[in-house]
Amino acid sequence: MKEIVYMDAAASWLKPQSVIESQVGFLTKNYANAGRGICARAGMVDKLIADSRRTVAEFINADVDKIVFTSGATDSLNRVVNILSSQPWYAEMSTFAVSDLDHHSARLPWENLLHEGKIRKEFVCELDEDFNIKIDSVPKVDFLIITAMSNVLGYKQNVKEIINAARLKNPNVITVVDASQYIVHEKIDVKDWDCDFLCFSGHKIGSDTGIGVLYIKDADKYYPDKFGGGMINKVITGEKSQWILYSSPEKFEAGTLPLTQIIGLQKAVENLSNWDGGHDLINYMYDELSKISKIKILTNRDACMLSFVIEDMHVLDFGALVGTYNICLRVGNMCATWIHKKLNIDGSIRISVGPWNTMDDAKYVVDVIKKLVK
Ligand SMILES: Cc1ncc(COP(=O)(O)O)c(C=O)c1O
Questions:
Q1: Of 128, 136, 159, 226, which has the most beta carbons under 10 Å away?
Q2: Which domain holds residue 329?
């Protein structure tokens, strides 16, 4: 039997050697806190963090002061809601729109506001027969949440057009892009999209867990949602303390940052540009699995992942069975309940590849599936 064949890149990437080495180097040779010390070590760590931030900013064509480090996409997406709902003008806002492509972490924070009575109404953008957000269905809302690439269907939404359509209806709409899957496969230009917020996790592009990115277009405009060390320039003590905040990104980064992970993130971003996307593997598996009559493929041939269901076999049973052949892929609802409901299924099976996968892996996976699904 083959050693583990890991085809669950869309859940989390395996770590490139350059990421591991940068983190080990930092932990063993250069460690100190950032943004606090004046010794040589601390200055060097500040520089490493600044270098990583610059690399991330260039990666999505953002200004560097608009890149905020968080602990992951979920954290970023929740913080967007916390930041927005704590602004003094928020009380005048009342509607948001989502779509059935959303991951739980993009949609539930907003629906939670609904439960708490802190927002009045939710709209759901319609999808066309190819599961693209229908441009003419984009409603007039205060906030629009866009999943740039579904983690089940794996193809690009036309984010720029969706944002334009929303702005035609309401020039002041605030747009939030969940780029967690898109970022792995496609170039992002936040200035071209002109989105207000954009979120992704580092671990899905090869960095460690515990690091995410939150891009904030009008970072100067927003009051922070968290308070603590490293974000305040001066505290004026008194009966009721006053303070002067640093500007962005520091004002959004209270507390010690995940330094090791930030340093690894820079290498992950640099490494990602060397990858071809693994389309030949996905295409091969798509073509082979299409020949099995009991398999219903949910994705397009060109999609960045391959999702399917099997007639008469529960996805969890399938996951356990392929597991006995040392194959790791994802089964279940992928934290994307709505798209499964739309497809009229409870869950699906997802194959997603990374640069470590070979055609030999793809052939092995196909052979095992052919053996299991007759
Ligand atoms: C589209 C999408 N959004 C958000 C997330 C949440 O990412 P994390 O769990 O890293 O916070 C995921 C993770 O699977 C995802 O695929």
A1: 159
A2: 276-372
The phi and psi torsions of 167 (rounded to 5 degrees) equal -70, -30
pLDDT in tens, 190-247: 999 999 999 999 999 999 999 999 999 999 999 999 999 999 999 999 999 999 999 9
Write down the pLDDT at residue 227.
Answer: 96
Same domain, 70 and 127: yes
- The answer to whether residue 3 is domain-embedded is no
Q: Answer for the pair 295, 373: CB distance below 8 angstroms, yes or no.
A: yes
pTM for this predicted structure: 0.97
Q: For a pocket test of ligand 1, which of 201, 207, 265, 337 has the largest count of ligand atoms closer than 8 A to its C-beta?
A: 201
- Strand-pairing partners, residue 143, are 96, 174
Contact predicate 33/49, CB 8 Å? no
* Smallest CA separation from ligand 1 atom 12, residue: 180
What is the whole-number distance in angstroms between the Cα of residue 77 and the centre of ligand 1?
10
Q: Which helix (H) or strand (E) holds 38?
A: none
Q: Which ligand 1 atom sits closest to the C-alpha of 102?
A: 1
298: pLDDT strictly greater than 90: yes
262-282 pLDDT, tens digit per residue, is 999 999 999 998 899 999 999
Distance 360 CA to ligand 1 centre (A): 29
